[in-house]
Amino acid sequence: MTSAQPQRAGLGSVFASLVRRDLLLALRRRSDVATTFFFFIIVVSLFPLGVGPEPDTLRGIAPGVVWVAALLASMLALARLFAGDYADGTLEQLALSPQPLLLLALAKILAHWLTTGLPLVMIAPVLGLQFDLSGEALGVMTLGLLLGTPVLSMIGAVGAALTLGVRGAGGLLALLVLPLYIPVLIFGAGAVAASMAGMSTSGHLALLGAFLLIAAVFAPWATAAAIRIALE
Amino acid sequence: MLQAVGLECVRGKRRLFRDLSFEAQAGELIWVAGPNGSGKTSLLRILCSLLPPDAGSVLWKGSSTRDLGEMFRAELVYVGHAPAVKDDLSALENLRFGLAQHGIPGDEAALHEALAWFGLRGREDLPARALSQGQRRRVALARLAFGEAQTLWILDEPLAALDVSAVELVRSRIGTHLARGGVVVLTSHQDVELGGLRTRRLLLGE
Fold it and tell me: How far are the Cα atoms of A17, B24, B39, B44 from residue B31, in angstroms, in the given order?
């Protein structure tokens, strides 16, 4: 059987198959993805109820509330990013793949963002309506989240890989990763505030884009290195 | 082909082995034996470069596996202690994705054939969580059917949790691989002497 060994598949198809596998796993464990999503919705919706229906106050706190909720929601899903693969030996197999581990790490980060980050981006404009945000501010907020949430996934992946196999990894992960989220929070929320004040938002958004590029270069590399250490 | 030179491994404060050297030729089986905790798994992890040795080096066809990196990994099949089988995926999906991660495309017919050969016919689409321990092991080992292009097989306790018929199947797989000039390193508490095949027993924990 299987006498003729076919040619090895290229990097692209290995990358795609890993993304597909993680998406399939997320589909089979829908509750995990739903938890993150509804956590975000509930946290954001609690504020108008708690603060009261004063439109000016709500508009003032909206950017910060949405962004902080997005940070916490993306945090919530991080612990699962590598833990399952680490426990069942899949991570060892990935590390032994002839493909570079950093690209496999990037594939896992991408799948993670598609299942946890992207849903937040899509629901955010709806949630923004609760805060009486203008159409333009909603657009800026969504664009900011679209640029910022992948950065959160990438920074988070480094933290998740570093805390693999550590007892009480969840709490440690939060302490490690949340401070690193601060620049994204400042410029993400800042963009919305600037838009509401009628100022240009291009500076903030350009900086978010720059964070994204820097993270895309360094985070997979650092994640791969941390995975190799965790496997020793 | 595979050469270990002066390997030393220290885990925690215990030195598991030191100055361990051996060589495996094409078509040779290295059977790593020894009591629990004698460093069998650590040795296998060092051989496949998951774990750096505290001293010494591992050579593959004359060059260090660390330097070879991806080129070495392309010639390696490692089936570890943890079977790398996902509960939420079916046996078929587990095998397909497991192979895909190593860039080995398996067409559907071949995947089905490999699972059927391993006694999983009719269970291809069951989620792995519905399978028994031995059956999960079989899913992990079904990979060996696609391991022809990889010369070096490193198998950690491949026979654990398997029934008599499955043990025979794995042995015949290993036999075929050795016959075509492959190298197999495995740990086992069971007797793995294969009739007519060159087996070298490496006893750790002396």
Answer: 34, 11, 13, 11
Cα separation, A172 vs A189, in Å, equals 25
Residue A25 lies in a domain: yes
- B52 chain-A contacts, CB cut-off 8 A: 232
In a domain, residue A2? The reply is no
Write out pLDDT tens, residues A183-194.
Answer: 999 999 999 999
Domain tally for chain A? Answer: 1
Ordered by where they begin, the domains of chain B are 1-75+151-158+182-206 (3.40.50.300)
Q: Strand pairing of B76-79 and B198-203?
A: unpaired
A5 in a structural domain: no
The answer to whether B182 faces chain A, any CB pair under 8 Å, is: no
- Which residue in chain A has the smallest CA separation from B94? A21
Q: pTM value?
A: 0.90
What is the least distance, in Å, from the CA of A12 to any CA of chain B? 10
Check CB contact under 8 Å for A2 and B48. no
Distance from CA of A98 to the nearest CA of B (A): 5
Three-state DSSP class for residue B18:
strand
Model ipTM value: 0.89
- Rounded to a whole number, what is the distance in Å from the CA of B117 to chain A's nearest CA? 10
Instruction: Tell me the mean pLDDT in the region A25-29.
Output: 91
DSSP string, A74-114: HHHHHTHHHHHHHHTTHHHHHHTSSS-HHHHHHHHHHHHII
Identify the closest residue of chain A to B80 by CA–CA distance. Answer: A89
**In A, which residues are within 8 Å of B86 by CB distance?**
25, 84, 88, 90
**Residue at A1 is within a domain:** no
Question: Using an 8 Å Cβ cutoff, are B128 and B86 in contact?
Answer: yes
